[in-house]
Amino acid sequence: MSESPAFEAPSAAPLEEPVDRYGAVRQYSLAKIVGVWAAAALPMAFLAWVCVPLLRDQLGGRDPFIESLLICLNVGLLWILALTLILLRREQGRLEWSRVVDGLWLRSPRSPKTGKIGGTVWLWAIPFVLLSVAINFLPIDPEGPLPRDLPVLLQKDHDRLETFFSGSWGWFALLVLVSFLAPVVEELFFRGLLLPRMRNVFGRIDWVVNGAMFGLFHLHQPWSMPRAVLEGALVQAFPTKRYQSTWIGLITHTLPSFVIIGVVLPLVL
After folding, report:
1. CA–CA gap between residue 252 and residue 236 (Å, rounded)
2. Distance of CA 124 to the CA centre of its chain
């Protein structure tokens, strides 16, 4: 399906909340959806599987592989953030805050039944957080190679992490950065940018396709794809579409990062 006519962004923020937040975005063609996905996924895969080993050989710290992995993952996530803003600016004309908010669906969630915005509608985040926790307990992901799979590394080679992070506040800062960049950037890209622009091509199942694309995005850590597909569709894409807001997905996706930081921080201390 071809792209719909270009959206003419208003010169100033609207005085009232638009009835349909799709009016603030431009629909993508199938080719553009795939192209934008590839522009995010392929560089991440290249950084993880090609650049990490190459950079490791140039480093000489406590654990060059982990150091290289942290650096490359942060670079990849910063690229996706830049890509999101570049595409949004091309669509909206300028990156004024009101246009960013509307273009990435960063407004408070709105009830599809009553039209109420915010308030008690935020409480719908709770069941989706609980669903996310339940999915994370499902034994559906195979173990990834060490030390690339951090949860497995924490369980099976705790001493290696303790040796690496002990007193290393700089590397811990990079871990904190990647832990929070990953969910925030991925939600802004997949649910803020892509999902609202997939409706013309995929219709009512756009949130299902979005979850599948999110899973396939994880070429840089393919062992996490099964859980990423399930969580991406049910816990992030579905509430984003239903409430026309990226915030519930941001909440459910970011909470596990606090757990990771809480586990690793004692190793630094």
Report:
1. 7
2. 20
